[in-house]
Amino acid sequence: VKHPAAADLRELLMRRELRPTAARQAVLARLVGSSRPVAPSQLCGEDLGRRFDRVTIYRTLAALKRAGLVHAVRGTDGAWRYRGQATPPGEGGCPGNHPHFLCLHCGHMQCLSGQRLPHIQVSPGVRVQGKQLLVYGLCAACVRRTGQRSPPTPGISPTPAKA
Ligand SMILES: [Zn+2]
Ligand SMILES: [Zn+2]
Q1: pLDDT (tens digit, 9 = 90+) per residue, 111-137?
Q2: Residues within 5 Å of ion ligand 2, judged at the Cβ atom
Q3: Rounded to an integer, what distance in angstroms lies between the CA atom of residue 152 and that of residue 144?
């Protein structure tokens, strides 16, 4: 994961007509530099949470999402997780057009990049606001830690972890 330069972040924000406030720059830097989607509660517990209050962080996430600079995926726990979109496009990040894995034990989410979401036919007249495909269970680290193994789920094949 490449960490974007401050000048690039300011430019990105201004191109989407967002004033490059300190909070927007800091949150965007964190999410573009992240290798996985992260929950706001986690951001509030980090450095960001000492620099900005909760309300500011949540509002900033909403603004970045509206501007299309971050993608959000909702976990089975109801918490949204955010990751920066690719800058420039095609260089990783989370454009959201792939399934995600959520560990129910540690709450970590992974982008399952390289796999496309299925095309879904919806009824005429509906307005789609998003789609997501979430696979959940225990991540490999939690399986090792807890010694639990879930039975294989039909239709879901484990892929060898990348080094
Ligand atoms: Zn885990
Ligand atoms: Zn993703």
Answers
A1: 999 899 999 999 999 999 889 999 999
A2: 94, 111
A3: 16
